[in-house]
Amino acid sequence: MPDWKDKIRCSFCHKKSTDVSKVIAGPGVHICDECIGLCNSILEEERLVASTAPRLPMWETMSAEQILEHLPKIAAVQAQVDDNLRDWVAHLRTKDVSWERIGASLGMTRQSAWERFKSET
Ligand SMILES: [Zn+2]
Hints:
Keywords: Chaperone, Metal-binding, Zinc. By secondary structure, the chain is mostly helical. It has 2 domains: 1-53, no CATH class; 59-121, no CATH class. Helix content is 55%, strand content 5%. The chain has helices at residues 4-7, 33-49, 64-94, 99-105, 110-117; strands spanning 23-25, 30-32. Helix 4 (99-105) crosses helix 5 (110-117). The longest helix is centred in the middle third of the chain and has 31 residues, at 64-94. The structure holds zinc ion (ZN).
């Protein structure tokens, strides 16, 4: 089993946790100190120009080519979140938590939870 630190990546820049100083965990996602620094710069910049207009969704200002380049990044985050969810569920199973309770927590049936998260080994 690989060390968890090798597995965890920043959900924003996709750097490994071992390649940055600090990674902070959210629900199924992570952010590194470098991306937090970038976020702070953006927030500070927006404070200076007193911009109140939200810039979301991002695709509003993107070309089709830029959106196509962005898609694999979203897919990588989705894979990371799925992987993380799988680890959390696997940990619950080591605590003998039933598939019924896991399914209920995720708003799915016992059967669906088992099919999605059963160990592949
Ligand atoms: Zn990052």
